[in-house]
């Protein structure tokens, strides 16, 4: 009868334990699916501060490369961007301090960054205030280069899912106001919809008419817009811009979200304060007119990493894991930038309750 192990066996077991523990610890830094059959949506926060400086653009490329690298492991099915794709729509003489890229160069950079997803993943990009002629808001209509750099046929995967589109403030058909139909691996239908920054009444009416159509009544609608919640979890009432026919969080809720039975999740960006993660996020839950729960989430990172003239946002992304039960969503906040180095990988996950949580789409 064997009564004990030899010293060599004990040492091997200890080494195996150490190596396994180390591997598990390292794996825990990288987000992983918690359930077989889950799928993910990645939320890309306002990228304006990545593209306005040439030095920061490689960081955005790193984030996009990480998304494509993790596509299979995390079963990523969609990427949503909260807007402010550029810092300035049409600047031609940057001063080198506030930005060193012209408006054209910024649009080229963000289009190229999303180009890494073209043909691999569908994505929906909201239009933010900086994507319009923000220093000429006294002039109407607001105008943008968005449709020139994000045409419907830029990514054939987007084009395959595109179902509805309407005109932007200049009267151009543009993906600033569009919706995309997609079905989960479990067969649940979704509609990903985006509306322009400070949407006009006609856009809110259009969006409401779309989601109320019979063919979409059983879809779970995820609405993407730029300015909706502040960090106090309050819906934004107004902004500093003197715009005509402009609507922010409160109006979007009252005119579109609350009356619509199937809008179940709203995602936005826009807000942020230097190196303060808490003031880049918001979350609240309310009940719509149909008695259904609506979750409203803001996620941004534009002033992390040194403020608006820092590195662009420390590489932060948000991963939404949709569990196979069709209702549970797990939220994780992760930075591929920090995860890239052993000296900073311990900073790559944000685990505060406002950055890592679970909610249900009932």
UniProtKB/TrEMBL annotation:
Signal peptide stretch: 1-23
Residues covered by the Calcineurin-like phosphoesterase domain: 63-271
Keywords: Signal
Pfam family, one: Metallophos
Alphabetized InterPro entries for the sequence: Calcineurin-like_PHP (IPR004843), Metallo-depent_PP-like (IPR029052), STPP_CPPED1 (IPR051918)
Protein name per Swiss-Prot or TrEMBL: Metallophosphoesterase
Protein's organism: Chitinophaga chungangae
